[in-house]
Amino acid sequence: xxxxxxxxxxxxxYGARIEAAAGERVRLLPLRGEQGEADLDDVEIAVYGLYxxxxxxxxxxxxxxxxxxxxxxxxxxxxxxxxxxxxRGVVVTNSAGVYAPAMAEYAVAxxxxxARDLRRLIxxxxxxxxxHEEISGAELYGKRVGIVGYGLTGRYLAGxxxxxxxxxxxxxxxxxxxxxxxxxxxxxxxxxGELLAASDYVVVTASLNSTTRHLLGEPEFxxxxxxxxxxxxxxxxxxxxxxxxxxxxxxRVGGAVLDVVVPQPLPxxxxxxxxxxxIVTPHISGGSPEGWARSMELFLANLPLYLDGHVGRLANxxxxxxxx
Length: 324
Prior knowledge:
The protein is of the alpha/beta class. It has helices spanning 8-22, 57-62, 83-87, 100-115, 118-126, 152-163, 192-198, 218-223, 241-249, 289-307; strands spanning 2-7, 26-31, 43-48, 69-72, 91-93, 144-148, 167-172, 185-188, 201-204, 228-232, 253-258, 278-280, 317-318. The strands form two sheets. It has a seven-stranded parallel beta sheet, with helices on both faces. Helix 1 (8-22) packs across helix 10 (289-307). The longest helix has 19 residues, at 289-307. The protein is globular and about 70 Å long.
């Protein structure tokens, strides 16, 4: 009997299905994420996500000496990845791709918001101001989008952008263009500057690790096509926010839609809240009932494989070392 730790909310909604998928070979341990709420010594499997207590998942994992597998309900694992966890040989699966539709739709909405200056239009709505004379924005049709990080979300977004008539460039750490891919130009990561200089919109979908922190900073905003829009649905740490504010103020960046920031929650005093060229949302681009369901379906499909000893066949296996 193996112990599975998971958030109380997930246990309430999926507990019966987890037990059925495991064939009575697991014991569920619902947690809020509070100090001393339960004995964690026997936890072998843990699901990351939706804990409501003050402890971070990394702190919880440190208290689980028997931990052998973590399933992340998110695509990113930077919040709990550590050299210590990697050294313990913990198996990790993530939910990369399950939130791709929601994140891609958000990214397109973000580009439209920048193109049509929706920040200003909504403010004018709040003022009950009918400003028909100042027609704002331009079409996305015929423009170029540069996708920084051509993974599952980036590919899904590329398909939508091609369908609405955009030219699509992308960067990928190990680029390999296969016939039929919805991208016009695929570049290796070290040629990011070329993508930035050529793109009308830049959408960030890359993962965060020690090599990508502040991937977009002062040097990158210097080479960015002047007035380009920026949409970040990945991680706040990928963008140097002080450099971004300077680029917004001097017009190098025409507008930004940020679903992720540093820190989170964004402090009330941050100038991003009130900047006339910025829209901030609270890390909700991937949030959808459909996405959460797909993430847990992935865990339910993987669970019997793990219990039967087929770890190498788990879907969405990730190497912790790639995220350090």
